[in-house]
Amino acid sequence: MSQASRIARRTFLAGSAVAAAASGLPRTVDAQTGAALPARPTELGAPLRPYGTPSPFERDVVRVAADGPPTAISSWDFTPLQHLEGIVTPSGLVFERNHGGVPQIDPARHRLLVHGLVDNPRVFTLDDLRRLPSVSVMRFLECSGNSLSEWKKPTGATVQITHGLVSCCEWTGVRVSAVLAELGLKPGAKWVLAEGADAALMDRSVPLEKMMDDALLVWSQNGEALRPEQGYPLRLLLPGFEGNMNVKWLRRLKVASEPFYTREETAKYTDLLGNGEARMFTFAMEAKSVITRPSGGMHLGRRGSYEISGLAWSGRGKIVRVEVSSDAGASWNAASLQEPVLTKCLTRFRYPWTWNGGEAVLQSRCVDETGYVQPTLADLVRVRGLNSFYHLNAIQSWHVASGGEVTNIHA
To answer: Based on the domain organization, do 326 and 201 belong to the same domain?
Structure first.
């Protein structure tokens, strides 16, 4: 190689090194040639594993409890919405809400009793249920206590705490309507008691109309068996209904003519109004949305272009529109809805935003296919007062300070 060729080559490689540095790519630089190359492996990689786990660099992407690690048998933890992409919640990050701990149930020994106002009461094994035609659906699941800390003052520091009692998965199982049709319903059948096999014997009354519509007996989540904390080996899925009704570790369905007025639908899971009266049986989760990025606890490092991204959902059907505001609701702009947009499923929305370095208040509001518009907190308080505990679906506000810090506020 001639001296001129060597000089030209060094000039080219030096330019490549500058380009690589500008791109932020990992590199090593040869002291003589200035060649920029990706870091070269010096050790063998890990061997095959029988079950995959996340990278150790993702150790912070975990469920957390509101007040630190859960210690009580009756407890909950929250999905890290700020770290997730798309609409599918990984099985290991789906929020938990347990009232009597997580039972360990042998699927070979588990049974489901279906009785009451049916012509042919029957005990089903899991194998019996799997012989029936199965379906798979993408649906969200939300605790009716999601956002409960936000009624009176902004409390949650991150979107994980304010909104992390919602998740979305692919669920596989058999339609409840197929099971009930096989057994036959007696006249007067209007309600079904669903009972779990946990220590709390969690039970709720479900309208027969819902059971015959889109309710499922589920054994699979995101393509694999349910996780124990999600109801393994069998749970009830009531798309769009409050999470407590989606009874886990399902052991019994009893058909009756009236609701059963269980503890969980009288002393708990009712909506206390301003006049002291309580609304019962507010099953559906109304339309709701939240910006997950940027959100509480994050920091904008420099002014310029950002993508605002978040999630919207409705227990009454599809999301048809999401709007985003950066000025506390003084003006609104339509966000893009990322496909797929499915009924009773999380919908990802995106909006391009330029931050000028000043203060801003970011909000989102959604509209579902029934025409319902997500309300402000003031709108909800005017109707329900400040005694409510469940079903808070108000617009969430994130304040962006001039220094870039993002915090939870009431706007």
So the answer is: no
